Amino acid sequence: MATKNLVIVESPAKAKTIEKFLGKDFLVKSSFGHVMDLSESDLGVDIENGFTPQYK
Description:
Layout: E1 5-9, H1 12-22, E2 26-30, E3 45-46, E4 52-53
Parallel strand pairs: 1-2
Antiparallel strand pairs: 3-4
């Protein structure tokens, strides 16, 4: 299987449009909203509380 480059955008509509321009070597996916960074401390998750994410 060929290696593809991953591009993540917020909107599904933007993903479809961008994928047409980039071509078959790119996989464009939507996050359906904002992309947030996880906290760098404690692996970015609260292990004692069901592995809930801890955002910056």
